[in-house]
Amino acid sequence: MRVYVIISKRARQISSDLKWEIQRKLEEFAVNTDTIEEVQENKEQIEISKFYERLPNTPIIAAQEFLNNEIQWRYSDEKE
Question: What is the average pLDDT value for the chain, to the nearest integer?
Answer without folding.
Answer: 84
